[in-house]
Amino acid sequence: MADTLTIHIDGQALTAQPGESVLQVAKRNHIAIPTLCHDERLDAAGCCRACLVEIDGQRRLQPSCNWPVSQDLRVSTRSPRIERHRATLLGLYVADHRLDQDGLPVHTTQGNELRTWAETTDFKRLLAIDSPRHPRGVDANPYVAYDPDLCILCARCTRYCDEIEAVSAIQLAWRGAETSIATAGGRGLLDTTCELCGGCVDVCPTGAMHAKQAPRFEKPGAVQKVRSTCNFCGVGCQLDLNVQDGKIIQVTAPPPGETVNDGNLCVKGRFAYGFVHHEDRLRQPQIRGADGELHDATWDEALHYAAKGLLGVRDRHGPNALGFVSSSRCTNEENYLVQKLARAVFQTNNVHQCAAT
Amino acid sequence: MQSKSAQREGILQQLAEQGGATALAVAQVARQSGVPEADVWGAGTFYGLLRRDPKKTLVCNGLSCKLHGADALHHQLAGQGVATEFVACLGLCDVAPAAVGPELLPLPASDQPAHVLPSDPNLPIDLGGPRDRSYRGLGAALKLGPEAVLRELQASGLQGRGGAGFAAHIKWRSVRSQPSPTRYVVCNADEGEPGTFKDREVIRRQPDKLLEGLAIAAHVVESTQIYIYLRGEFERERRILQDAIDQALLGPLAGLEVHIVRGQGAYICGEETALLESLEGRRGMPRLKPPFPTERGFRNQPTLIHNVETLACVPDIVLRGGTRFASLGRREPGAKLYCISGHVARPGVYELPLGVTLDELVAHAGGYIGTPLAFSPGGASSGFLPMGERSRPLDFASLSQVGSMLGSAGAVVLNDSVDLPLAVHWQLSFFEHESCGQCAPCRLGSRWMRQALDRYLASGDPAELSDVRDVAWEMLEGSICGLGQVAALPLTSALQHFPHHFGHRPVTQELHHG
């Protein structure tokens, strides 16, 4: 392809496309560059400074996430200068973070990229920074909470809310060391444009944005991720059930780029899983008896009973006395079957889908 | 995400008109502008003047004011029942200790004319001379044509007077060569470097030279739209400048649009890309460069940004030639407005050959008060130098050789009555307060640095400062913009040049964090 460029990272000649960043080319070629504020779906912010590299001809270290490739660009991702930069920067982040007894950033149920970085890199130990963020009021929403002590101000959440969801419910507010993630006037999320999609939770690298329903500090390995399909509507979003001891403790979106929903979920898919383990949940069919009470039945009994009732209506009043409405939770295939049931079995065109209007 | 029809640019001014970034005002401005409410809140809470109590008198907490009794003034006003709050710097270092009333006009004691040199028509700006409303330089530029003006500008060697010292003609040519037909000329009048008040004085005394420089620049880069981003605390200067604009638009500036946009109290907006963000109604967080503003600046269009003083030099360069202007300097070209304050007899703004020494500058300012100990040659960002450097030329190259900088040429002298670590503490507090918070090295480093010094002052144990060098190195290497890169310099320069001031010491009882 005529457009293809060659760049050199750490002396290695690599193919790149115009418009790509140095970081993209590095990642594709498994050259490790630490990042915190980067998300492939968002415009490069260059604010976490983790991904700084040396670019030939540039006096200053430059963010690889935002540096466009050009023909014969020469980049170094390893040098004493870069190592010192990473060690000191990481030291500052750690000094500003909540730590466990080993002096590492706390692990959270959703992981902690800062901890992962600190576990694999020697860093400069610094005395803790006393840097309380601007305080935030009570937020009564049932799903999303913010813990400023774990926030590294990468602004992935605010940028996601703006650039992906086009909701702009949260934004960086205040200034300097007291900069925080805020809603207008510090209100609860229910009183903002927030749709409680929980995307801010998923993009948060450190667990500062977290799901209120989920336990916060589960150990790594304690939680198993089970890929499933959301059944709240027919779109077919993939979700990861985070399962511990046979119970769902949280739902997360699969990584962007892997599934149709590209890392996104809505409020239902992400948070409305309480029914799964609820004690009131029906676990088998029931038929109302002559005594007016519901009695457990087998599937065969229940289906026969329903079929008999429907056929009885058709025989007494004709096919158009029946109407079929399917749920928006049905898949396309299930919707097809409902209309087939209506038309072929009961001979009526009275069929509708609740999401059709 | 804001809708396409949203009107973001005016939101900061609208908040100011409604008494600041209160929840109520934010909701209303969001409704009127179409900008998401959280964005208005995020932008509004960034700015000191939008967060202040609009009934309070503001007392300056800058170095020069601290040296001259800012704390005492604060107590005195409080004793008189005046509601006050400390602010980072008011740009009134020559009348220290300074305070401005709720309307942002200086209190009577802070409202004295600055000391300048007597009128000398040979000086390019001539602050002491009669106000020059002739616009003869503009007339000459129109006759010469853009290329000839650029040749004179290049011959003049004019370097940006805001602090970076970048060659002006390169910026002008870059903007002129851009394919986009829409270009902007922006004047950076957000003078906020503690110790600096020269642009203020240009606007007070020779506002037409600034406007003339802007008009010449607009002519050369083929722009008709001029924006002057003026420091919000300069309310008196705003009135003078607006008056000058109104009159000039009737004559020499006819056909141009000239807007004053008020800053809202954020030192970082003196950084050119933070300034552009602020002009566009956002938080003043510097942009990543490249692209540079000359390619994509205001509204994503090619933009020429210059400091007030730089632009005010232009009419003289056009009128009397670049070579003559260049000859006014010593080792670097041109004359320069030097601010001097602190422990000197007549703090003021003196237009002198670029490359004068501190001793020469202080001679103009009536001499030292007491025995000088240290000086800051170019504002807080330039750190502290020992008096052994008093004969060093105050120019861009000579000062960078000793790890300092000319910066905005806001020199401050400290005599031996000053507890140097405490003065460093004031400077570090300033940068910590003014860090925009975007990037970690500056946001975390500036706070860590100040707290390390606090620990030293509280314990008297120099071991508290052992990691300073590493953190300072990271702030320099890792920060996005110049603020973070130099924010540790007050401490590192003092440690380098005054190690004996940072030994074991008695516990310091009281620190004002202002």
Structure description:
The complex is a heterodimer of chains A (357) and B (514). Chain A folds into 4 domains: 74 residues, Roll (Ubiquitin-like (UB roll)), CATH 3.10.20; 121 residues, Alpha-Beta Plaits (2-Layer Sandwich), CATH 3.30.70.20; 59 residues, ADC-like domains (N-terminal domain of TfIIb), CATH 2.20.25.90; 68 residues, no CATH class. Chain A has 357 residues and is an alpha+beta fold. The two termini of chain A are 48 Å apart. The radius of gyration of chain A is 27 Å and the shape is elongated. Chain A is built from 8 helices and 16 strands. In chain A, the strands form 6 sheets. In chain A, strands 2-1-5-3-4 form a 5-stranded mixed beta sheet, sandwiched between helices. Chain B is globular, with a radius of gyration of 22 Å. The longest helix of chain B is centred in the last third of the chain and has 20 residues. In chain B, the strands form 3 sheets. Chain B has a 5-stranded mixed beta sheet, with helices on both faces. Chain B is built from 22 helices and 12 strands. By secondary structure, chain B is an alpha/beta fold. Chain B has 4 domains: 54 residues, Glutaredoxin (3-Layer(aba) Sandwich), CATH 3.40.30.10; 192 residues, NADH-ubiquinone oxidoreductase 51kDa subunit (Rossmann fold), CATH 3.40.50.11540; 81 residues, Roll (Ubiquitin-like (UB roll)), CATH 3.10.20; 83 residues, de novo design (two linked rop proteins). The mean pLDDT of chain B is 96. In chain B, β8 and β9 form a beta hairpin. Chain B is 41% helix and 12% strand. The chains are: A alpha+beta (357), B alpha/beta (514).
